[in-house]
Amino acid sequence: MKKVYPDAKSALDGLLRDGMMIMSGGFGLCGIPETLSEAIRDSGVKNLTFVSNNAGVDGIGLSRLLETRQIRKMISSYVGENKLFAQQYLAGDLELEFNPQGTLAERIRAGGAGIPAFYTKTGVGTLIAEGKEVKEFDGQKYLMERGLFADLAIVHAWKGDAAGNLVYRKTARNFNPMMATAAKVTVAEVEHLVPAGEIDPDHVHTPGIFIKRIVEVGGARKHIEFRNTRPRPAAA
């Protein structure tokens, strides 16, 4: 089965439709599948639900799909640092399903493992619990959360091979591995594509069985959310 595609547009061909749910890996601006998300924007699909820790920052990542109003709903954990996100939400133009970060991660992991729901103490007695089942175990209250499983997942990896095996680099791993397991189809963008068999099996983070399509995008743009510097003292 051919998994390698020449570009992001062809890698997504036939997979996109209005109203679908898409998981997008990354944390802040680290490990985001930026090339694939831009191809989704360029496709023109709309009324999308995105599962992502956040929506990037203004002008970068998923925020570019907010600019074109292709996103109807975000299932997220962190919504700061994005003025457009806040503006659309406060105006009632964007639906938000807010999750504690650990809960979001576990909802994705559970979806990938075929677990429809689980119980957690996180969120009990807060706005997060509204409309959800609360059950008592051993004298403690727990909130039921549903697993998440998407129509499509897009992920970013440092290295991949032609069989779809992926290796992530340091903190750019974040949500990518679990999202790769939690969708009907997962498309990966990789910075370096190597022949099948070149990656040591012990180094594989996401086995190729989860990856249906892969595209090489070269060195990723390393965005910095906040550049903090201090003046360098003049040479003596």
Walkthrough of the structure:
The chain has six helices and twelve strands. The longest helix is centred in the middle third of the chain and has 12 residues, at 101-112. It has one domain (4-117, 147-216): Glutaconate Coenzyme A-transferase. The mean pLDDT is 93. The relative contact order is 0.18. It is an alpha/beta fold and 236 residues long. The protein starts with a strand and ends in a 20-residue tail after the last strand. Helix 2 (34-43) links the parallel strand 2 (21-24) and strand 3. The strands form two sheets. Strands 1, 2, 3, 4, 5, 9, 10, 11 and 12 form a nine-stranded mixed sheet that branches. Strands 6-8-7 form a three-stranded antiparallel sheet.
